[in-house]
Amino acid sequence: MPFLLLGIATIVFIVSRLTHANPLVSIVGERNLNNETIVNAAKRRWGLDQSVPVHYVKYMQNLLRGDMGTSFTTRRPVLSDLWDRLPATLELTFVALFIGVVIGVGLGVLAARKRNTIIDHAARFIALMGSSLPAFWAGLIVLYVFYSKLGWFPGPGRLDPRTTAPDKITGFFTVDSLLHGDFALFRQSVGHLIMPASILGWGVVGIVTRLVRASLLDEFSMEYVRVARAMGLRERTVVNTHAMRNALLPTITIVAFAFAFLITGAVLTETVFSWPGVGSYAVEASRKLDFPAIIGVTILGGVAFLVTNLISDVAYAIADPRIRLS
Amino acid sequence: MSTIALPAPRARRRRPPWLRGGALIGVISVLVWAIVALTLPLWTPFDPTAPAGPRLMSPSWDHLMGTDALGRDVFTRALWGSRTSLPIALIVIVFSVILGTIVGAAAGFLGGWIDAVLMRFVDITMAFPPILLAMAITSSLGPGVRNALIAMVLVWWPIYARLLRAQVIAVRQREYVESAEAIGAPRFLILRRYVLPMAYTPVLVNATMDFGQVVLLTASLSFIGLGARPPSAEWGAMITEGAVSFYDWWIAAAPGIAIILVVLAFNFIGDALRDSFDVKEIAR
User: Fold this and answer.
1) 0.90 exceeded by pTM
2) Which residues of B touch A3 (CB under 8 A)?
3) Do A60 and A53 meet the contact criterion of CB atoms below 8 Å apart?
4) ipTM for this prediction
């Protein structure tokens, strides 16, 4: 684990060194590039006049202190940028994960129970669509149809324009507005969540449905299920209390499984819906070649991946008494 | 005693799993796309980069998917996108498989510290969400199709290395490999002749399944602005253009449908392959 963290940081450092682009362009702007005083001052200010090994050591030292440098474009520490934007992404991904798991488990169970029927095929098709859909395109289409044509849902962003965000407690607008007792704001923030979270959640549906269906079918072929059926238990009891308990175990690992997908989806969905989260931050940063910001987001992504893996391992061990942490 | 000639029971001919049900649809549509991509310049009436009619026309019989802001035929451009996206995906997959095969075979066959070092590197690379690492590499190298391609290969190969290594280790312990070693066959020969042919199936199956995901990733990088740039008829770039003029929905709709059709086709094939080979899926 610590080794992986070190590796992540090192890889990101190497990647950031691949560049031929001159970061000075984005710091001082094209016009000032010929002005030697400004360029030298900028070089000194951002440490660009030092050698690569010096950079590496400094970079590692700073990382250990939680310092990811200062964004070229926002001129603020990357860490506080990320910290400000993280709740928006978390709120979106949690809701998407919830939608995806609920619908995915439902469809998976349905598909497995009605195997090879039209229902099975339909469920699997919905799931396949979820993993085939480009999230950014789906977002555009949904915005066009349900926002600008039908007006059923509010447009991009976390809140309507000219609405002040609730005072920050958790950073989740839905939770914060409730804590402040502001139900109008709560409804508004939920309304803004529905479209992006559904798009993001659809991809999760694709992963979950397939997994639940496959593992439930595996359980159906086990002897204990045949015994339960032979005993004359109702099909619902067989499925819900016998097969499901075993079939859902692998679904716990879905958190780690779906994580890479959620991040990818969040990057694109946030861009389309102007969602002020980490994903859209990453896109803005890579468009403007804002390397400290890109590096920060990439490290955050790697670390988050490790953490979700750890969580899902622990959750699995808790849920399955056969596995104990060694 | 007379012999009774029993008619031999006619063997029920079963189509191979990748030609049944959804997979058949997948294979056919991939073939159609491949033919379209190869022959398109021969029969399309419009130039994908030159104006073909009035600007921003909604879909009609003359222009099946309308025209865009520069008067180019959107349907032609959506088909033309396959000439960019499919080769890119193919190149990314092929190079990732080659790189993954070399690293995975070396790690699994040589073992020891080489294995340890290579696999740690694989672990670290796989600890990143693919799109973030690809974005970081592309923006570092400089936006553009070539660099996006390099980035995608760098992000994609570790999965094949890991798969192949596991297979190589399993196959190495088979008796026929041991006997080959016992009679003193050269190590490289053993690897190439006896181990790799038995080990590469999961890699190929996974590579096929990943094709659609690479098409998606290519389009995503272009959409963000790191891959192909707007004038070119690439699906992601076309959607970016369509996003600008929101109310002319067909400009973005056509390339999106093209992406879905291609990715769906590969996912259909992937599903069938997964079922018949019982390949363990690896999260990407």
Assistant:
1) no
2) 120
3) no
4) 0.85
Counting DSSP H helices and E strands in chain B, the numbers are 12, 0
Q: How far is A257 from chain B (nearest CA, A)?
A: 5
Q: Residue A282 is which amino acid?
A: A
Whether A134 sits inside 8 A of B123 (CB atoms) is no
In angstroms, the first-to-last Cα distance of chain A is 16
Low-confidence ranges of chain B (pLDDT < 70): 1-20, 52, 277-284
Domain chopping of chain B, boundaries: 66-277
Q: Which residues pair with A70 in a beta bridge?
A: A77
CA–chain centroid gap for A221, Å, is 35
What's the token pair of residue B34? 């491949």
Chain centroid to CA A152: 26
Strand locations in chain A (E): none
Which residue among A124, A131, A134 sits closest to B259, beta carbon to beta carbon? A134
Q: Using one digit for the tens of pLDDT, what is the confidence trace for A9-68?
A: 888 888 877 776 666 666 667 677 777 777 777 777 767 767 778 888 888 888 888 888
**B66-277: CATH, from 3.30.365.10, 1.10.3720.10, 2.60.40.10, 1.10.260.40:** 1.10.3720.10
Dihedral sign of CA atoms A141, A147, A153, A154 in order = positive
Q: Which residues of A touch B121 (CB under 8 A)?
A: 7
